[in-house]
TrEMBL record:
Main location: mitochondrion
Example GO molecular function: NADH dehydrogenase activity
Name used for this protein in its record: NADH-ubiquinone oxidoreductase chain 1
UniProt record similarity statement: Belongs to the complex I subunit 1 family.
Described purpose of this protein according to its UniProt entry: Core subunit of the mitochondrial membrane respiratory chain NADH dehydrogenase (Complex I) that is believed to belong to the minimal assembly required for catalysis. Complex I functions in the transfer of electrons from NADH to the respiratory chain. The immediate electron acceptor for the enzyme is believed to be ubiquinone.
Gene name per UniProt: ND1
Catalytically driven reaction(s): a ubiquinone + NADH + 5 H(+)(in) = a ubiquinol + NAD(+) + 4 H(+)(out)
GO BP terms: aerobic respiration
Entry keyword annotation includes Protein biosynthesis: no
Gene Ontology CC terms: mitochondrial inner membrane
Highest taxon in the source lineage: Eukaryota
PROSITE patterns the record matches: COMPLEX1_ND1_2 (PS00668)
Listed InterPro entries: NADH_UbQ_OxRdtase_su1/FPO, NADH_UbQ_OxRdtase_su1_CS
Length: 315
Protein backbone atom coordinates (compact mmCIF):
# COMPACT_ATOMS: atom_id res chain seq x y z
CA UNK A 1 0.00 0.00 0.00
CA UNK A 2 2.82 2.40 0.88
CA UNK A 3 4.50 1.64 -2.45
CA UNK A 4 1.26 2.51 -4.28
CA UNK A 5 0.97 5.79 -2.35
CA UNK A 6 4.61 6.62 -3.10
CA UNK A 7 4.15 5.75 -6.78
CA UNK A 8 1.03 7.93 -7.01
CA UNK A 9 2.76 10.85 -5.32
CA UNK A 10 5.86 10.48 -7.51
CA UNK A 11 3.81 10.31 -10.72
CA UNK A 12 1.83 13.40 -9.72
CA UNK A 13 5.11 15.24 -8.96
CA UNK A 14 6.44 14.37 -12.43
CA UNK A 15 3.12 15.50 -13.95
CA UNK A 16 3.32 18.86 -12.12
CA UNK A 17 6.94 19.43 -13.23
CA UNK A 18 6.11 18.75 -16.86
CA UNK A 19 2.98 20.92 -16.70
CA UNK A 20 5.02 23.85 -15.35
CA UNK A 21 7.70 23.37 -18.03
CA UNK A 22 4.91 23.21 -20.63
CA UNK A 23 3.49 26.47 -19.26
CA UNK A 24 6.92 28.10 -19.60
CA UNK A 25 7.26 27.14 -23.25
CA UNK A 26 3.59 27.94 -23.95
CA UNK A 27 4.27 31.55 -22.88
CA UNK A 28 7.18 31.60 -25.32
CA UNK A 29 4.94 30.22 -28.07
CA UNK A 30 2.30 32.84 -27.29
CA UNK A 31 4.79 35.72 -27.43
CA UNK A 32 6.21 34.41 -30.72
CA UNK A 33 2.76 34.03 -32.32
CA UNK A 34 1.61 37.47 -31.10
CA UNK A 35 4.88 38.93 -32.38
CA UNK A 36 4.36 37.58 -35.88
CA UNK A 37 0.67 38.60 -35.84
CA UNK A 38 1.76 42.16 -34.95
CA UNK A 39 4.59 42.09 -37.53
CA UNK A 40 7.51 41.87 -35.10
CA UNK A 41 9.89 39.14 -34.00
CA UNK A 42 9.00 38.38 -30.39
CA UNK A 43 11.65 37.15 -27.90
CA UNK A 44 14.77 36.12 -29.83
CA UNK A 45 17.81 37.33 -27.83
CA UNK A 46 18.10 34.99 -24.84
CA UNK A 47 19.89 31.82 -26.09
CA UNK A 48 18.87 30.18 -29.39
CA UNK A 49 15.65 31.77 -30.76
CA UNK A 50 14.76 32.94 -27.24
CA UNK A 51 14.27 29.43 -25.80
CA UNK A 52 15.48 30.47 -22.33
CA UNK A 53 13.35 33.63 -22.23
CA UNK A 54 10.59 32.10 -19.99
CA UNK A 55 13.15 31.00 -17.40
CA UNK A 56 14.84 34.40 -17.36
CA UNK A 57 11.40 36.01 -16.89
CA UNK A 58 10.68 33.65 -13.99
CA UNK A 59 14.02 34.49 -12.32
CA UNK A 60 13.32 38.20 -12.78
CA UNK A 61 9.83 37.88 -11.24
CA UNK A 62 10.95 35.78 -8.27
CA UNK A 63 13.89 38.10 -7.53
CA UNK A 64 11.75 41.26 -7.51
CA UNK A 65 10.44 42.72 -4.27
CA UNK A 66 7.33 41.16 -2.77
CA UNK A 67 4.96 43.93 -1.62
CA UNK A 68 2.05 43.43 0.77
CA UNK A 69 -0.60 46.19 0.94
CA UNK A 70 -0.84 47.64 4.43
CA UNK A 71 -4.65 47.38 4.75
CA UNK A 72 -5.09 44.04 3.02
CA UNK A 73 -6.52 40.94 4.69
CA UNK A 74 -3.17 39.21 4.83
CA UNK A 75 -4.08 35.51 5.18
CA UNK A 76 -6.61 35.29 2.29
CA UNK A 77 -4.45 37.69 0.26
CA UNK A 78 -1.42 35.43 0.73
CA UNK A 79 -3.09 32.04 0.24
CA UNK A 80 -5.54 32.72 -2.62
CA UNK A 81 -2.83 32.50 -5.36
CA UNK A 82 -1.57 29.27 -3.75
CA UNK A 83 -5.11 27.83 -3.76
CA UNK A 84 -5.57 28.98 -7.36
CA UNK A 85 -2.42 27.19 -8.51
CA UNK A 86 -3.31 24.10 -6.46
CA UNK A 87 -6.70 23.83 -8.17
CA UNK A 88 -5.26 24.32 -11.65
CA UNK A 89 -2.66 21.58 -11.05
CA UNK A 90 -4.82 19.01 -9.26
CA UNK A 91 -7.36 19.17 -12.10
CA UNK A 92 -4.77 17.44 -14.32
CA UNK A 93 -5.44 14.19 -12.46
CA UNK A 94 -8.58 13.56 -14.54
CA UNK A 95 -6.54 12.89 -17.71
CA UNK A 96 -7.43 9.31 -18.78
CA UNK A 97 -4.00 7.72 -18.72
CA UNK A 98 -4.27 3.94 -18.99
CA UNK A 99 -1.74 3.36 -16.20
CA UNK A 100 -4.64 3.39 -13.69
CA UNK A 101 -2.80 5.58 -11.17
CA UNK A 102 -5.38 8.34 -10.84
CA UNK A 103 -8.09 7.18 -13.17
CA UNK A 104 -11.62 6.94 -11.77
CA UNK A 105 -15.15 6.78 -13.06
CA UNK A 106 -16.27 10.28 -11.96
CA UNK A 107 -13.53 12.26 -13.71
CA UNK A 108 -15.90 14.74 -15.36
CA UNK A 109 -17.63 15.41 -12.04
CA UNK A 110 -14.24 16.16 -10.47
CA UNK A 111 -13.46 18.55 -13.34
CA UNK A 112 -16.76 20.40 -12.88
CA UNK A 113 -16.18 20.76 -9.12
CA UNK A 114 -12.64 22.13 -9.60
CA UNK A 115 -13.80 24.52 -12.32
CA UNK A 116 -16.50 25.84 -9.96
CA UNK A 117 -14.03 26.29 -7.09
CA UNK A 118 -11.60 28.22 -9.27
CA UNK A 119 -13.74 31.36 -9.20
CA UNK A 120 -13.52 31.62 -5.40
CA UNK A 121 -9.75 32.11 -5.42
CA UNK A 122 -10.08 35.00 -7.90
CA UNK A 123 -12.91 36.53 -5.88
CA UNK A 124 -10.95 36.28 -2.61
CA UNK A 125 -7.82 37.66 -4.28
CA UNK A 126 -9.75 40.69 -5.53
CA UNK A 127 -11.52 41.27 -2.20
CA UNK A 128 -8.60 40.70 0.17
CA UNK A 129 -6.34 43.21 -1.60
CA UNK A 130 -8.58 46.00 -0.27
CA UNK A 131 -8.31 47.93 -3.53
CA UNK A 132 -11.19 49.28 -5.60
CA UNK A 133 -9.58 48.23 -8.87
CA UNK A 134 -8.92 44.64 -7.76
CA UNK A 135 -12.41 44.41 -6.22
CA UNK A 136 -13.99 45.51 -9.51
CA UNK A 137 -11.90 42.96 -11.43
CA UNK A 138 -12.91 40.22 -9.00
CA UNK A 139 -16.61 41.08 -9.31
CA UNK A 140 -16.39 41.04 -13.09
CA UNK A 141 -14.64 37.68 -12.99
CA UNK A 142 -17.27 36.16 -10.69
CA UNK A 143 -20.16 37.35 -12.87
CA UNK A 144 -18.48 36.22 -16.09
CA UNK A 145 -17.29 32.82 -14.87
CA UNK A 146 -20.61 31.88 -13.26
CA UNK A 147 -22.49 32.93 -16.43
CA UNK A 148 -20.36 30.87 -18.79
CA UNK A 149 -20.04 27.89 -16.44
CA UNK A 150 -23.81 27.35 -16.76
CA UNK A 151 -23.61 26.89 -20.53
CA UNK A 152 -20.33 24.94 -20.22
CA UNK A 153 -21.90 22.47 -17.78
CA UNK A 154 -25.00 22.04 -19.95
CA UNK A 155 -22.86 21.36 -23.03
CA UNK A 156 -20.80 18.80 -21.11
CA UNK A 157 -24.01 17.28 -19.77
CA UNK A 158 -25.12 16.73 -23.37
CA UNK A 159 -21.94 14.75 -24.08
CA UNK A 160 -22.32 12.89 -20.76
CA UNK A 161 -25.88 11.83 -21.70
CA UNK A 162 -24.69 10.76 -25.15
CA UNK A 163 -21.83 8.63 -23.80
CA UNK A 164 -23.75 7.57 -20.69
CA UNK A 165 -20.81 8.02 -18.33
CA UNK A 166 -18.64 10.51 -16.41
CA UNK A 167 -15.63 8.35 -17.29
CA UNK A 168 -13.29 10.19 -19.68
CA UNK A 169 -12.00 6.94 -21.20
CA UNK A 170 -15.50 6.40 -22.60
CA UNK A 171 -14.86 9.46 -24.80
CA UNK A 172 -11.95 7.49 -26.27
CA UNK A 173 -14.16 4.49 -27.03
CA UNK A 174 -17.06 6.54 -28.42
CA UNK A 175 -14.78 8.58 -30.72
CA UNK A 176 -12.74 5.65 -31.99
CA UNK A 177 -14.29 5.81 -35.47
CA UNK A 178 -15.71 9.35 -35.66
CA UNK A 179 -14.86 12.46 -33.63
CA UNK A 180 -17.63 14.46 -31.99
CA UNK A 181 -16.57 17.63 -33.81
CA UNK A 182 -17.87 16.15 -37.09
CA UNK A 183 -21.20 15.19 -35.52
CA UNK A 184 -21.86 18.27 -33.34
CA UNK A 185 -19.84 21.11 -34.83
CA UNK A 186 -21.95 24.05 -33.45
CA UNK A 187 -21.88 22.57 -29.96
CA UNK A 188 -18.10 22.16 -30.12
CA UNK A 189 -17.73 25.83 -31.13
CA UNK A 190 -19.91 26.85 -28.16
CA UNK A 191 -17.80 24.66 -25.87
CA UNK A 192 -14.57 26.22 -27.13
CA UNK A 193 -15.81 29.80 -26.66
CA UNK A 194 -17.16 28.90 -23.19
CA UNK A 195 -13.71 27.58 -22.30
CA UNK A 196 -12.25 30.88 -23.54
CA UNK A 197 -14.58 32.76 -21.21
CA UNK A 198 -13.96 30.35 -18.32
CA UNK A 199 -10.19 30.92 -18.51
CA UNK A 200 -10.59 34.73 -18.80
CA UNK A 201 -8.98 34.90 -22.24
CA UNK A 202 -9.51 37.46 -25.00
CA UNK A 203 -12.16 38.49 -26.06
CA UNK A 204 -13.60 37.70 -22.61
CA UNK A 205 -10.75 38.98 -20.41
CA UNK A 206 -12.80 41.37 -18.27
CA UNK A 207 -11.27 40.11 -15.04
CA UNK A 208 -7.92 41.42 -16.30
CA UNK A 209 -9.02 44.34 -18.45
CA UNK A 210 -5.69 46.15 -18.62
CA UNK A 211 -6.96 49.22 -20.44
CA UNK A 212 -9.61 50.14 -17.87
CA UNK A 213 -8.85 48.14 -14.69
CA UNK A 214 -5.03 48.34 -14.44
CA UNK A 215 -4.60 44.52 -14.57
CA UNK A 216 -7.80 43.70 -12.70
CA UNK A 217 -7.99 41.48 -9.61
CA UNK A 218 -4.21 40.89 -9.42
CA UNK A 219 -3.22 44.57 -9.43
CA UNK A 220 -1.84 44.46 -5.86
CA UNK A 221 0.19 41.28 -6.38
CA UNK A 222 3.90 41.32 -7.13
CA UNK A 223 6.76 38.82 -7.35
CA UNK A 224 5.67 35.38 -6.04
CA UNK A 225 1.93 36.03 -5.78
CA UNK A 226 1.73 37.36 -9.33
CA UNK A 227 3.72 34.45 -10.77
CA UNK A 228 1.45 31.92 -8.99
CA UNK A 229 -1.64 33.55 -10.54
CA UNK A 230 0.14 33.64 -13.91
CA UNK A 231 1.10 29.95 -13.70
CA UNK A 232 -2.40 28.91 -12.67
CA UNK A 233 -3.97 30.82 -15.58
CA UNK A 234 -1.68 29.32 -18.19
CA UNK A 235 -1.85 25.79 -16.78
CA UNK A 236 -5.65 26.08 -16.98
CA UNK A 237 -5.32 27.16 -20.63
CA UNK A 238 -3.16 24.11 -21.38
CA UNK A 239 -5.60 21.85 -19.54
CA UNK A 240 -8.60 23.33 -21.36
CA UNK A 241 -6.81 22.69 -24.66
CA UNK A 242 -6.23 19.09 -23.62
CA UNK A 243 -9.83 18.79 -22.41
CA UNK A 244 -11.14 20.13 -25.73
CA UNK A 245 -9.17 17.45 -27.56
CA UNK A 246 -10.53 14.76 -25.20
CA UNK A 247 -14.15 15.84 -25.64
CA UNK A 248 -14.43 16.48 -29.38
CA UNK A 249 -11.14 15.62 -31.13
CA UNK A 250 -10.62 12.01 -30.05
CA UNK A 251 -9.08 10.85 -26.78
CA UNK A 252 -6.09 8.66 -27.64
CA UNK A 253 -3.63 10.13 -25.12
CA UNK A 254 -0.88 7.70 -26.17
CA UNK A 255 -0.95 8.92 -29.76
CA UNK A 256 1.54 11.59 -30.90
CA UNK A 257 -1.17 13.19 -33.03
CA UNK A 258 -3.23 13.83 -29.89
CA UNK A 259 -0.59 16.25 -28.62
CA UNK A 260 -0.31 17.88 -32.04
CA UNK A 261 -4.06 18.54 -31.80
CA UNK A 262 -3.57 19.90 -28.28
CA UNK A 263 -0.88 22.32 -29.52
CA UNK A 264 -3.22 23.40 -32.32
CA UNK A 265 -6.04 24.16 -29.86
CA UNK A 266 -3.56 26.11 -27.69
CA UNK A 267 -2.57 27.99 -30.84
CA UNK A 268 -6.26 28.84 -31.36
CA UNK A 269 -6.33 30.39 -27.86
CA UNK A 270 -3.40 32.64 -28.82
CA UNK A 271 -4.75 33.34 -32.31
CA UNK A 272 -8.04 34.56 -30.87
CA UNK A 273 -6.11 36.84 -28.51
CA UNK A 274 -4.10 38.33 -31.38
CA UNK A 275 -7.06 39.01 -33.70
CA UNK A 276 -10.27 39.72 -31.77
CA UNK A 277 -10.93 42.90 -29.75
CA UNK A 278 -12.43 42.75 -26.27
CA UNK A 279 -16.22 42.45 -25.99
CA UNK A 280 -18.38 45.08 -24.39
CA UNK A 281 -19.53 43.77 -21.02
CA UNK A 282 -23.27 43.84 -21.77
CA UNK A 283 -22.59 42.02 -25.05
CA UNK A 284 -20.69 39.38 -23.08
CA UNK A 285 -23.63 38.73 -20.78
CA UNK A 286 -26.08 38.85 -23.70
CA UNK A 287 -24.05 36.17 -25.48
CA UNK A 288 -24.00 33.94 -22.38
CA UNK A 289 -27.64 34.12 -21.33
CA UNK A 290 -29.48 34.73 -24.62
CA UNK A 291 -27.38 32.75 -27.13
CA UNK A 292 -25.35 29.98 -25.49
CA UNK A 293 -27.83 29.03 -22.76
CA UNK A 294 -30.85 28.42 -25.09
CA UNK A 295 -28.62 26.63 -27.61
CA UNK A 296 -27.09 24.33 -24.99
CA UNK A 297 -30.54 23.63 -23.47
CA UNK A 298 -31.97 22.76 -26.89
CA UNK A 299 -29.06 20.43 -27.59
CA UNK A 300 -29.50 18.83 -24.15
CA UNK A 301 -33.21 18.15 -24.81
CA UNK A 302 -32.30 16.78 -28.25
CA UNK A 303 -29.69 14.43 -26.78
CA UNK A 304 -32.12 13.18 -24.11
CA UNK A 305 -34.74 12.44 -26.78
CA UNK A 306 -32.11 10.82 -29.05
CA UNK A 307 -30.90 8.58 -26.21
CA UNK A 308 -34.45 7.56 -25.27
CA UNK A 309 -35.17 6.75 -28.93
CA UNK A 310 -32.09 4.51 -29.13
CA UNK A 311 -33.02 2.75 -25.87
CA UNK A 312 -36.61 2.17 -27.05
CA UNK A 313 -35.34 0.77 -30.37
CA UNK A 314 -33.12 -1.77 -28.64
CA UNK A 315 -35.80 -2.72 -26.11
Amino acid sequence: MFFDIFLSFFSFLILVIFVLVGVAFFTLLERKILGYIQNRKGPNSVSFLGFLQPFSDAIKLFSSENIFPLKSNFIPYYFSPVFNLFLSLIIWMVIPYFSNIYIYSLGLMFFLCCASLNVYSIMIAGWSSNSNYSMLGGLRSVAQTISYEVSLFLILLSFIILSGSYFLIDFYYFQFFCWYIFLFFPLCLCLFSSLLADTNRTPFDFAEGESELVSGFNVEYSSGGFILIFLSEYSMILFMSLFSCIVFLGCDVFSFMFYIKMIFVSFLFVWVRGTLPRFRYDKLMYLAWKCYLPLSLNYLIFFIGFKLLIISMFL
